[in-house]
Design brief:
486 residues; three-stranded antiparallel β-sheet; 13 helices; 2 domains; mainly alpha
């Protein structure tokens, strides 16, 4: 078993680790692309050298000018892209550090909230244990039990009457003529029809002895309805008696000093909410920066870059340059042999570097996908309320295995969310004593409600005590007179 806070921290740690790995791969991709740019410059320089060596002035000036022009434009665009990537990487690293610090702060604040809750639970149990010796509570508890017993009996009668009505009503409802007259309200003040219709309806009624059957069917429906109304009124009486008992329990809690402990919980929760808001703001900024960096790393999304690189590649593919290269290979002289050898080396290095860059680019995309899976799970964890201060997971081993699988690239956020859903529970509080312990506000864990999830009978709580409501007393009919519940 693992606490919700620890489970959330393990998910955030995995996410931070994947982000760091993604950063390292992005740096490798930038390095590979920069090296490819340098190789293309060497290639252009080699062809310029061949042109100067073997061509006449007119042809040489044309080729050299075109190469230098294309190379200069590519160099400018690549330099701008490198600077943008470097800025994005630096900003991303800075934000990641801030996110990790905010995650640590949020974890610490959540631990402090858990620590503030502990004495409230302890005082709850201690006060509950004293109630059987407190005469006013014992008397009110007996009244609540008696009201519940009466309501339970009424509920059973109503349920039995409803079952009887379902069984005994079938013969009536299977008779189409009877149901026809019943729906028209025949024999009652609701019946309206012309003389001809009244004549034939009367014949049908006499034929099936409707007047004798109608009162029986009416009572068959009316008795369950009245019994259900009576049972519901008694449930309200149970709720009223339980509320009176809860008021006695609340007074005992206040006399024992619960208010000061509640204030400490309020302050701790405020700190958690602020830490959550700060973390969410930083995560949003980081997500936006992730999009910007992904666009910068994808040459296809930058028309200026792809155009400049293609222009240089086109210049290098000129037929006269290729012819010049082939002739230099066939008849190497001491002057051009060195140039040809260098061009061969550059050509091979460019192929290898392009292959390396493509592999790294695929790895970046895959790591980005893993990060997205963890980010989806992190978002679901918060929005589903799993980070409740009393939350816990019984299947922590399974959760750890799935997180590790996502980091490896073989798991999915759906698998992790299924594991969270199946293993989640809230640590039991003190049942329903005093109305059940409740959080002060909805909180960053996605909804308030009783900590212990204390059971209730008929919506009115259990007569046997247990659980605890702290904060202000509950007004009859819902809502709170003052303060707040937690």
């Amino acid at each position: 078993m693992i606490s919700a806070n620890d489970a959330y921290s393990s998910l955030q740690q995995a996410l931070s680790g994947v982000r760091r790995d993604e950063d390292r791969l992005s740096a490798m991709l930038r390095s590979a692309e920069e090296e490819a740019a340098r190789l293309r410059e060497r290639q252009a320089e080699g062809f310029r050298a061949l042109a100067r060596l073997r061509l006449d002035a007119i042809a040489r000036d044309e080729i050299v000018g075109q190469l230098e022009s294309a190379e200069q434009r590519a160099r400018q665009v690549l330099a701008g892209r490198r600077e943008a990537l470097a800025r994005a990487a630096a900003e991303r690293e800075k934000l990641e550090d801030q996110v990790e610090a905010a995650e640590a702060e949020r974890t610490a604040r959540a631990k402090a909230l858990e620590a503030a809750i502990a004495p409230v639970e302890a005082l709850n149990k201690e006060t509950e244990a004293r109630m059987p010796a407190f005469a006013p509570w014992v008397e009110q508890n007996e009244r609540a039990k008696a009201a519940e017993a009466t309501a339970r009996a009424a509920e059973e009668k109503a349920a039995q009457a409803e079952k009887d009505r379902e069984v005994k009503g079938k013969p009536y409802e299977a008779d189409n003529l009877f149901i026809y007259l019943w729906k028209r309200g025949y024999g009652t003040s609701a019946y309206q029809a012309g003389n001809i219709a009244r004549y034939f309806d009367g014949m049908v009624a006499r034929l099936i002895e409707y007047e004798a059957a109608r009162p029986n069917y009416y009572m068959l429906n009316e008795i369950p309805r009245r019994l259900r109304e009576h049972a519901n009124r008694l449930k309200e009486d149970v709720a009223a008696e339980i509320e009176k008992r809860e008021e006695i329990e609340r007074e005992a809690l206040e006399d024992a000093g619960i208010v000061a402990l509640e204030k400490a919980v309020d302050e701790a929760e405020d700190a958690v909410e602020k830490a959550e808001a700060k973390l969410k703001s930083l995560q949003d900024k980081l997500a936006e920066l992730d999009k910007q960096q992904a666009a910068l790393l994808d040459e296809r999304q930058d028309p200026a870059l792809s155009g400049a690189v293609e222009e240089l590649a086109t210049a290098l593919r000129r037929e006269d340059l290729n012819t010049l290269y082939r002739r230099a290979q066939q008849t190497p002289t001491p002057e051009d042999e060195k140039i040809v050898t260098s061009l061969r080396e550059v050509e091979g290095a460019l192929v290898r570097k392009a292959s390396e860059a493509e592999e790294v680019r695929k790895a970046v995309v895959d790591m980005s996908r893993r990060r997205s899976e963890l980010e989806r799970s992190e978002s679901t964890f918060r929005t589903s309320g799993y980070n409740h201060p009393l939350g816990q997971f019984m299947n922590n081993v399974v959760i750890a295995q799935i997180i590790a699988a996502i980091v490896r690239g073989t798991g999915s956020s759906r698998d992790l969310e299924d594991a969270y859903r199946s293993g989640y529970s809230r640590r039991p509080g003190s049942d329903s004593f005093g109305g059940g312990i409740r959080l002060p506000r909805s909180g960053p864990w996605g909804g308030g409600g009783s900590w212990g999830g204390g059971g209730s009978w008929g919506g009115g709580g259990r007569s046997g005590g247990g659980g605890f409501r702290t904060g202000a007393r509950m007004a009859r009919g819902g809502g709170f007179k003052t303060g707040k519940r937690f």
